[in-house]
């Protein structure tokens, strides 16, 4: 029974009560750095990871580096080849389509949870995230806009309250960003349309119209995939 696992008394956190400080392990910090390097193209698709070189660059021993790299293998961002080592995953056209199939499934589930349980929080946080997109678009900064776009979708999944959806979304959003980075010279988004689409998602959440929200989310994903496919075809 669930109650047997959780205990007979529920534990409540009182305001102002002290909690243990959560500190990331060295391996977790290294994994974060490697993930960012993959996302921003410092470690491009197909590149091999040299253990000695990376350990020297990061200033860590090989133990936590190996643990970090195995985390990224489990996430699907690195692949292990026998007798050759670890490589950053390559992304092909079929992979990009699969990323968006998975993203739609994850973010659709997140949206359902938001509309049913977390509307007020979601509207507040997503409005702030969308405002950062507007600011980046106004400056004409493509990288900052992509960062703000990423933050919007990370926030969307986070405010759903599901840690499992967050874990799944993390890798998918890194993979999506890998595509944008690799295609940065060819990918040309309609900036105003992009900003408007995200505003439309917030408006649908605020209205509480689940069907409208899911319809707009699907259209947003399809538009993004179509733009990426067009850039890859070039």
Structure write-up:
Helix content is 71%, strand content 4%. It is mostly helical and 234 residues long. The protein folds into 2 domains: 63 residues, Winged helix-like DNA-binding domain superfamily/Winged helix DNA-binding domain (Arc Repressor Mutant, subunit A, Orthogonal Bundle); 141 residues, Up-down Bundle (Four Helix Bundle (Hemerythrin (Met), subunit A)). β2 and β3 form a beta hairpin. This is GntR family transcriptional regulator. Keywords: DNA-binding, Transcription, Transcription regulation. InterPro entries: GntR_C, TF_FadR/GntR_C, Tscrpt_reg_HTH_GntR, WH-like_DNA-bd_sf, WH_DNA-bd_sf.
Features:
single chain, 234 residues, mainly alpha, Arc Repressor Mutant, subunit A, Four Helix Bundle (Hemerythrin (Met), subunit A), 2 domains, 3-stranded antiparallel β-sheet, 10 helices, 3 strands, globular
Tell me briefly what this model is.
The protein is mainly alpha-helical and 234 residues long.
Helicity, in percent? over 70%
In percent terms, what proportion of residues is strand? under 5%
Give the SSE order as H and E letters: HHEHHEEHHHHHH
- How are the strands ordered across the major sheet? 1-3-2
Instruction: Give the averaged pLDDT, no decimals.
Output: 88
CATH topology of the largest domain: Four Helix Bundle (Hemerythrin (Met), subunit A)
Sheet of most strands: 3 strands, antiparallel
Termini separation: 56 Å
CATH top level assignment of the largest domain: Mainly Alpha
Integer count of domains: 2
Tell me the name of the CATH homologous superfamily of the largest domain.
GntR ligand-binding domain-like
Q: What's the helix count?
A: 10
Class based on secondary structure composition and strand pairing: mainly alpha
Question: Shape from CA axes?
Answer: globular
By DSSP, the count of extended strands is 3
User: Low-confidence parts, pLDDT < 50 over ≥5 residues?
Assistant: 1-13
Examine the secondary-structure arrangement and name the CATH architecture of the largest domain: Up-down Bundle
- The radius of gyration is 20 Å
